[in-house]
Amino acid sequence: MIKIPAKQLAVVLLTAGIAVGCATHKVAPTPPKPTGPSAATTQAINDAQAVINGAQAPCTDTGDASQLLTQAQQAGQAGDNAKAEQLAAQAKQDAETAINNCYMSHAKDLLAQAQGYTNLNADQQNRLNQGQQDINNNQGKPAYDVLSALVAELQAAQSTYTVVKGDSLWRIAGRSSVYGNPLEWPLIFKANADKIKHADFIYPKQDFNVVTNPLKSNVDSATWYARHRGPWKHHKADRRDREWLNGTLTPPASAMPSSGTSSMPAASSAAPAPTASTTAAPSASTTPAPSASTQKTPSAGNGGR
Description:
It is a single chain. This protein is mostly helical. It folds into two domains: 58-155; 158-278, no CATH class. It contains ten helices and two strands; from the N terminus they run ααααααβααβαα. Helix 3 packs antiparallel against helix 4 (81-114), helix 4 (81-114) packs antiparallel against helix 5 (122-136) and helix 5 packs antiparallel against helix 6 (140-156). The radius of gyration is 41 Å and the shape is rod-shaped.
């Protein structure tokens, strides 16, 4: 039997233990990197998508937002959350800017239209002012909403006036409940051309449409015509009335205000109103023969007082 010194035995045993330990030790594998978007990235992408999806007519164009959003989604799937969130934020901003710019453009057009109407009441004027303020604050959608509704209301606004004995278009237009300016009688004539055979005859109980908020350009044209039409003669239909109605007789450019506001001339500047020397408008007592199509007694001359 071979005897091994104690010191050598200890060295052998220690060496064997180390070798066994090295043989049995396993290195832990490196955990795989997480893939896919983070919660923050997903939220950023969803926010941008909501803005794009929320675009409505007439402003559906969102510029490059959809392309940027696609790039953000791809970066998120690849695990590049920083890039994905940056692209998503840019997509949202581009969409919001494009939509707002579109609404601002439409709102400015609507503002110009609304400013072209007359006879706005206090509520309508307040809404016009609100639309102007929203435009000044670069708030396209609110401006568009208030002004589009206002313009639609002004375009459609009409009332009905029932003729009474002694009326004339001049007198009707001069009523405060109508236009408050007798020189605007051609507006009533134009709105009821299918009911009025010629401008010097109207009849009791006729119902006339009255455009509540006529355009300033139409008011200017009507008052120009009222001032330059000339005297009323023998209650005969005047060819100039029809020429003005069909647009072949128009004011010269020099006669129209350049500022875009209605001239609203005073009644005293009108062409001569019917008098005894110019063949006054018929009254109920004169009772000239009505036209064959009416069989009613005329109440007064339309242009006369």
